[in-house]
Amino acid sequence: MVHYWTMIGNPRYGFFGAVTQPFRRAFALTLPAFVLLDLVVLIYKFGLWVLWVALGGATLLIVLGEVFPFLQFAGIVLGWVEVMLGRVKPGGLWQRIQRGS
Question: Is the residue at 90 inside a domain?
Answer without folding.
Answer: no
